[in-house]
Amino acid sequence: MQKAQNQSSGSILTSANVDFPFDLSNTTIIKGIAIILMTMHHFWGFPDWLTNGNYYIGIRFFGTTFESFLGVNGHICIAMFLFLTGYGMYYSFLKGNNFENVFRKIVKLLLEYWLVLFIFCIPISMLLGKFIFDWKNLLLNMFAYNTDYVVFGWYIRLFLQVMILLPFLKKLVGRNLLLSIGLTTIPFFIMGILAAMFMPYNMFTLGLHELFFWIPSVMIGYISAKFQLFRKVKLLFVQVKIHNIFVYLALVILIPFIRIGLPYPTYFDAVYSFIFIFASMSVLHMLKNARMNRILHFLGENSLYIWLLQGLFFFNFYPLQFIAYFPKVSVLVLIWVLILTSSLSVLIRKMLAFCKQLISPAQKPQGNTEH
After folding, report:
1. How far is CA 83 from CA 139, 195, 276, 335, in A?
2. CB neighbourhood size of 6 (10 A)
3. Domain spans of the chain?
4. Which of 91, 229, 273, 370 shows the greatest Cβ crowding within 10 Å of its Cβ?
5. Which residues are registered as beta bridge partners of 64?
6. Integer Cα distance of 202 and 211 in angstroms
7. Residues 229, 274: contact at Cβ < 8 Å?
C-alpha cells in the first residue's frame, strides 16, 4: 500500500506528468529578460562608446566594475533571441505552409524595422546633419545591409537570412536528437571558423559570417521545441532531487562566470542560452511574482523596438548620448533607457495600430446573421 502511494505521489515520473510551461506568454517574458541584458550590454559593456562627459557610477568588482561584468555577459541575449526564434518557428511550421509562414514573418519584421528607420532614425539623422541622401545607401539600409541609420539593425539582416534558410534546415532535424543537433550545428561551427580564417569581411560576405556564427542558436531552439528538451531536463532535475529554486538561481549566477572564464564564450552561447533560459524560467515559475512577470512581459512585447531604438545614442547619434546617461548612476541609467525606449515603442505600436485601423476598419455587423 505504501509503495503504491509513493508511486502515485510522483516517485515514478515521466515527461508526460512533469510539465514545463513555455508558451507564447513565457517566451515573451524571456524576451523581457533578454532585452534587459541587451541594454546592459550596450550601455555598460562598451566604455569606448562613451563620449566626453558621459559616464555612469559603477561598483568595483574583481578588478573591473560589476556593471562591466554584466555588460560583457549581456551579449548572451543575442543567442537567447535567436533561440526563441527557432523555438517559435517550430510551432509556426506545424500550423501550415512553411514558406508562407516565413514570408509573413519577414514582412512583419521589415514593417516594424521601417517604422523605426523612417519615423526616428532618418529624421533625427537629418536634424543632426548626418544624413546624406543616396538611393543605393537608402535601399541597403532598408534591408539592413548598411546600418549607418539604424545602428543595431544588423539583427534584421541576420533574421532575414535565418528565415530564408530555416525551411530547408528543418529537414535535417529527424527523430534522433544527437544526430539532429550534429547535422544542424556542427557544420556551421566549422564553416564559421573557416570563414573567420579565410573569408574577408565586406558587404557581400558579412551576412555569411553572421549566419555561420549564429544559426546554431536558432537550431538549438528549434530542436528544443521539437524534442521538448525543457520538460525532459526538468524531469531529470526532479529525478535526481535538485529541482530547487536555489539550484536554478545558482545556474543563473554561474553561467556568466563560466561564460567569461572559458575561451571563446560567444561560440558556445547556443548552449549557454539554453541553460540560462531554462534556469531563469524555472526561477520565475517558482517565484510566481505576478508584478515581475507583467514588467518582463511588457518589455518582451516591446523588445524589438527597444533594441533598435537604443542605437539612437551611439555612433552617428553620439550628440544624443547625454540623454541616456543623464542619471549618471548605473542602475538608474539602465532603468531610464528602458523607460525611454519602451515609451517610444508603445508610441510606434499605437501609430501602427491606428494605421491598420484606417486601412482596414472593423466592419459593423449588418442585420441578423443567425440562420
Report:
1. 29, 22, 11, 25
2. 11
3. 15-354
4. 273
5. 61
6. 14
7. yes
